[in-house]
Amino acid sequence: MAVRRLGTYEVGSSSNNPRTSAYNILPLNADAEICKLPEVKAARNELTRFPVKEGDDVFDLLKEKFLFQEDNIKNQREHLILLLSNARSADYDKDPASVKGKDQDLPVATVRSLFEKIMDNYWKWCSHVRIRSPDCRREEEDKQCMLKHVALYLCIWGEAANVRFLPECICFLFHNLAKLLEHQGPLYPEGQTFLTAIVTPIYEKIKEEADKGKTTNQKHSKWKNYDDFNELFWSNLLFKLPQDNPIQPSNQLHLPEDDPIQHFQHNPGQPSKIKYFKDHFEDAYKNTESKKISYVERRTFFHLYHSFVRVWILLIVLLEILVACAFSGNSLVLLLKLLICIGPTYFVMMFLKSVLDVVMMIGISVQVLSRCHVKASIIFQLLFYGACSFGTIFLYRKMILEMPPNEILLWMLVPLGAYVVIFILRHAVRRQVERMERYKFLACLNWLYRDYFYVGGRLSEKGFYYWRYALFWLLLLGCKASFSYFFQIKPLAEASKSIYPHNEIVIYQWHDLISKRNHNALALMSLWAPVILIYLLDIQIWFTVFSAVVGGILGSKDRLAEIHSLDMLRARFDTFPAELAVRLLASKKQTSAPKGIIISQAKTFSKFWNQIIKCLRNEDYIKDYEEELLIMPEGFNNYITWPLFLLAGKVSLAIKLATENPEELFERLKNDKFMSLAIREAYASASYYYDTLIDGHKDYEIKKLGIERKLSEIDKSSPDKEYKHIARIYRKVKKLVWLTDMDNQKKVNIRAVADALQSIYVDVSKFVKNEKYVQRADVRSTTMPNEIQVEDINLPANENKRTRRQKPLEPKFIRRLHWLLASTEAHSSVPKNEEAQRRLQFFTNSLFMRMPQAPSIRAMKAFSVLTPYYREPVIYSVKDLYLDNEDGISILFYLQKVFPDEWENLLERLKITEKMLTDILIKASNISTGKDAFSKSDAEKVRETRLWASYRGQTLARTVRGMMYYREALRFQACMEEREIEKNEINPEARAEALTDLKFSYVVSCQRYGEQKKHTEREEREKAEDIQELMRTHDGLRIAFVHSEGKCYYSKLIKMSDTGEQEIYKIQLPGNPILGEGKPENQNHSIIFTRGEALQAIDMNQDNYFEEALKMRNLLEQFKPPDKGPQATVLGVREHIFTGSVSSLAWFMSKQEASFVTLGQRVLARPLRVRMHYGHPDVFDRLFHLTRGGMSKASKAINVSEDVFAGFNSTMRNGNITHHEYIQVACELKKLTQEKKKRKSCYLMLLQCLIIFGILTNVFNYRK
Known about the structure:
Blueprint: E1 4-6, E2 9-11, H1 18-21, H2 38-46, H3 58-66, H4 70-89, H5 96-99, H6 108-129, H7 142-159, H8 167-178, H9 194-215, H10 226-231, H11 274-287, H12 303-306, H13 309-328, H14 332-339, H15 342-360, H16 366-369, H17 372-401, H18 407-428, H19 430-435, H20 440-443, H21 463-499, H22 521-537, H23 539-557, H24 566-571, H25 576-583, H26 599-618, H27 624-630, H28 644-647, H29 650-660, H30 662-671, H31 673-693, H32 707-713, H33 720-740, H34 750-769, H35 780-783, H36 811-822, H37 834-846, E3 863-869, H38 878-882, H39 891-898, H40 900-910, H41 914-925, H42 939-950, H43 956-981, H44 988-999, E4 1000-1006, H45 1009-1013, H46 1018-1033, E5 1037-1045, E6 1048-1057, E7 1060-1069, H47 1078-1086, E8 1094-1097, E9 1102-1103, H48 1106-1109, H49 1112-1116, E10 1130-1137, H50 1144-1165, E11 1179-1181, H51 1182-1186, H52 1202-1212, E12 1217-1227, H53 1234-1256, H54 1259-1262
Parallel strand pairs: 3-4, 3-8, 4-5, 10-12
Antiparallel strand pairs: 1-2, 5-6, 6-7, 8-11, 9-12, 10-11
Helix pairs in contact: 2-4, 3-4, 4-6, 4-7, 6-7, 7-8, 9-11, 13-14, 13-15, 13-21, 15-17, 17-18, 21-22, 21-23, 23-50, 25-26, 29-30, 29-33, 30-31, 31-36, 33-34, 33-36, 39-40, 43-44
């Protein structure tokens, strides 16, 4: 059979070699459903359209030319195919026919959009270092050129290992290798590859510097970190600048040869040219004199002033203004004289800051300082503020001595006014200057803003955001100033005026040498010192108050907590279907929900709602009967059948009111919509129930008696006896339903059912005819011409029934009717579990919040979730459950006491008693000691118990289950869409599964998994076995880990197949990937296995919910460029602390944490726009951060909190971090020792102060 080869994909055949048959998402077998998707076919075919030998694609070309690793090529081939496929499917909602058509060509616009996203940082780097980037100009080869460059960049990035933390180094390598794409011949000497020739030399230098900090314990200012190495590539130090035209440097590396091809080319008989790259990198490294490149962090207390100088200036200047107003009285001249002291104060403080600038720059490379714009900026500021300081002090002194100070006063006002005008204009025109930086005569103006480094420039915001930011602080400072003036400064000013001229010296117990002839200076200092201290510190209190007020207003505007109780949820339940159709369904865009309820909307909502309720039951948050009350049937006889907890007790209450107070009943029917719906459904269901039981016999029909006409004539003025008749019929119908409910009856008494039916028929007949009831128990023979026989009853349990005219009633229908008739009002208060209540309330409340319209599954953005794991618990073993802690309490006992209702729900789900389960667990715990045998029949119960406990602890199992809800939610939504759209689809479930694989992937980076499998300790081996169990449980879960073979290290990706653990990729690393902080480097080595355009950062202490996963595609729409404002690069997500119920201390800590992750994040994002990434479950623009150093920082002793530095990196590279609260992810407070708790408390206090100062400093301008 003929075989056509697409890269390494063989269509039409399968290989028995497990190394070649392994796949991650795209299988090698073209018959797989995901490979049949038109967008996947188009992407795969596009890669083969290159002028290479038949059957090869662009990755085969790159592998042959640059000697990339085989698995790196396979990994990036799948990566690029999925990126192109998702970029193509993004147009599905706009033009479904073109996406699903037979055309196997990708549009140029699709390829160009992906090309621009990946090349964006490279183009900016080329512009900064003034070099020309490769261009794709020929239209006929435009797509090929773009795909070739994208594939090359991904291959370099995929094999760069720790060099991925150096994004501009990646740009440097790509720039030089891209010029060699058309070169023919080998580029490396024999035995050399891209890894050994290019990546390893850089890695070795990074490792050498990192070892200095580990082994020699040198200060971090004495050795280079990742950022220092990356800054090496921000300048032209690595390029040879021609003497005649320094503005347009050549694209050549600074090597002895002039031919750029020879930089990496090896000629036989000559020394290896690859050595020159290594030597050149070492030369550039030595040229910096082992010093920092652009900034050196010195741990000194001067940072309290230098880093927050604007805050100090603001507070001290404001204090001078308040003091001047308090002491001037009614003298305008004195007030003006005192206010002018602001000028000298400002210039002196800026001069001190300039001096510290010079001190802080000591230790930076001379080559960087020799750049004129850097050195000139530092020197100019030092000289300018020095001159202004001495000048203004001299003039101010002259002005004070002059009586009256008219002439010198003008000398002071004119320059100060001119400086203020220039200062305002400088910031007002900044955005325009940045836009016109391409003009050479205006580019020099950037020197005024110190934008001479690659990052931190062009951070100015639109005027609207500045005014919103300024308004917040003006109001805050206005309130602070008013309070300080009237309650602190002014009272002390009056007292100081009395003490200052007082001649009598106060006698202290110690010798006061200060106050003599100094107007009681010590007394004045003692009076003012505490006030000034409070004045400097109370800004934190004011910020807390304003954050609470502004956050509350924003939350109210966003409609947060509108549904805050079960009563509110029940009252507004009928509006949920329409709101869900607008928010969560992929349909035509609507701004608001239509009025009224459409049956189709209710049926769709019921599918969503029921799936959420089933998840709550599987998680043991609700009982079986609560599930029955909460489930919403799809519909019956064109009626919307609402959940029973809305209708519970309504029918029985209506019957009671009818017999006691009919007027109140009719009033309740007007106001309580669910009571009328319950009565309507009860009548319709009871009629259908009766007709089905009699199997459609016309002789026994009730409708022919005219009951409907009779019921329509009843009103509140009807006689009481008619209501009593209805109550009697109601009681008999309820008893009949109870007799046929299999959940209440072990065996149905068919004779009793027949008697009850006949009795109901007689009662209805008497009710219609207004006759008195016959007071006899047996009325069969006297009231009906034909007696209902046993063989006439249409029930599955009726063995005498031979022929059936109608299908028997389903047990769930009978069960629902029984609940409808027999339930009380107490059954409406479900669920009982507080966590279940909170989740349902938040989900239903989010349906009213503003969120983007949900796209179809096919058109949504693809995303991945990445979780770093070290050696935390995976699944609690039985031994762990019974192991006592230092207080003598086991985990299982503790969880049973903290979550008693959830433990009972587990026992109910397993259908076992607590004593029986305890015996099984004790037997299971004795397996390891060999004391007892363990029956395999009870293995599932032990497994469910272990998982139940693990899902309530800080384990990997809990995190994995929560994140895999994304997959379940996408599969659920895709199934619904495919069943509606693909009417003729053979297998919509298979198509939905393929779309789920296309849109979502989950990678857990288990750094030590390879070691744990071979570990000598049983505990570690059990963790590896539990990880394998998670892979068997959750289809689609991928495990990445670092594998070592001697001195060689590899990044591996594995999955669980039918035959066991299967290796997918094995990519060699230049060395041990853990050089700095462990968590970010663990993320870095596995990030190459993630897919999609978005990446969510999830830690080991986080969880997720199915109902929140349903809103993920709405959240990803926030990445689309808005009509106004910058595009988001990090989407902040609301976080719920779920450990608050453990204890009172945990409750307090959870509230403290929640105040930061809710109110705090809300205000930082709006109106301040200074929110960063604080380790919460934020979603990153993956392609943006992929090309800019990743999602975290890893320098040892510098990036201790790697998450917040990721936020800094995103902001300083012109990213935008937002915050959204219509979706939430759960989080658990990490376990802390007593020592760590004390340290964390100190750190939190310090962090709060630093956050206040940092926000006041206006990070948009400061971080440059």
